[in-house]
């Protein structure tokens, strides 16, 4: 059996030419942002990748086909669709086998990108260890995926709704290189600061590409997390966001929100509590990540001596 993959025209062309490609996820479209900002952002992110010399490949499952790159119409339809499955490693294959439609999280997008031979992927923020995980055991499958699949994920750190110290601990245990771009502190999605030191720091996309090549040469499995701080002008300072996050988490508990619903619920609640400011920041950080991912993909595509 082969995986039914459909490449968009521009991705097929880039693959044939060996040109740089950046994978993009679709859960951020279906579960991370409201319509129509979700579709507008997805288009702007794709444009940003192109403007920096790479081809965007938004990944999603549509009626049982694994799409690597979406057309305008497919993107629009996905952005408006309701009750789309949020796919991770555990349910990805079943969705394809049953001919259903689903959006790919970071974990599933990494798997899809790897199947398509794409080594760099841009998103907003990875999933991680949720606060209270010692009770709920809620740890995102994104972390395991980073440990097994050789794709570099460019994100603005881990979402500040998470327990970031525990998220970094788990990444270290799993042997995932966490590279912060341009500062000594690990960023916290909407905020540049987290109070935690960068495990590794690299300020140049070519350095990141070289680290990827060396890891591959050494036969070490798994990917990299590149943590790219949100631009200063777009950030919401940590102190201002902390009470909002605490309130959103309390609301989630009061409503019995669990498992896959937690992250989408919290993002939506924080959007409401900040009067949309969190969405503005989210859009700015994704665009910023698309740019860096395109530069890393470009550096990889160049042969080095
Ligand atoms: N980045 C964003 N918004 C999002 C996500 C990332 O700016 O909604 C999604 C990704 O798909 C990521 C998911 O995999 O949130 C994490 O969900 P969970 O915590 O349930 O693993």
Index terms:
305 residues, alpha/beta, Indigoidine synthase fold, 2 domains, eleven-stranded mixed beta sheet, binds pseudouridine-5'-monophosphate
Distance between the termini: 39 Å
Q: Based on DSSP secondary structure assignment, what is the total number of beta strands?
A: 11
Largest sheet: 11 strands, mixed
What is the CATH class of the largest domain? Answer: Alpha Beta
Given as residue ranges, the uncertain stretches (5+ residues, pLDDT < 50) are none
Q: How many domains comprise the coordinates?
A: 2
CATH fold title of the largest domain: Indigoidine synthase fold
Q: Average pLDDT value?
A: 97
Fourth-level CATH superfamily of the largest domain: Indigoidine synthase domain
Folded structure, characterized:
The protein is an alpha/beta fold. The protein folds into 2 domains: 1-118, Indigoidine synthase domain (Indigoidine synthase fold, 3-Layer(aba) Sandwich), CATH 3.40.1790.10; 124-305, Indigoidine synthase fold, CATH 3.40.1790. It is 48% helix and 14% strand. It has 13 helices and 11 strands. It has helices at 9-17, 27-32, 37-51, 72-80, 89-97, 106-115, 133-136, 141-148, 164-173, 205-217, 238-254, 262-273, 277-301; strands at residues 5-7, 21-24, 55-62, 65-68, 85-87, 102-104, 120-122, 152-155, 178-181, 200-202, 224-227. Strands 1, 2, 3, 4, 5, 6, 7, 8, 9, 10 and 11 form an 11-stranded mixed sheet that branches. The longest helix has 25 residues, at 277-301. It binds pseudouridine-5'-monophosphate. The site of pseudouridine-5'-monophosphate has 18 residues, from helix 2, helix 12 and helix 13. Mn(2+) binds at residue 138. Its EC number is 4.2.1.70. It catalyses: D-ribose 5-phosphate + uracil = psi-UMP + H2O. One of its GO terms (biological process) is nucleobase catabolic process.
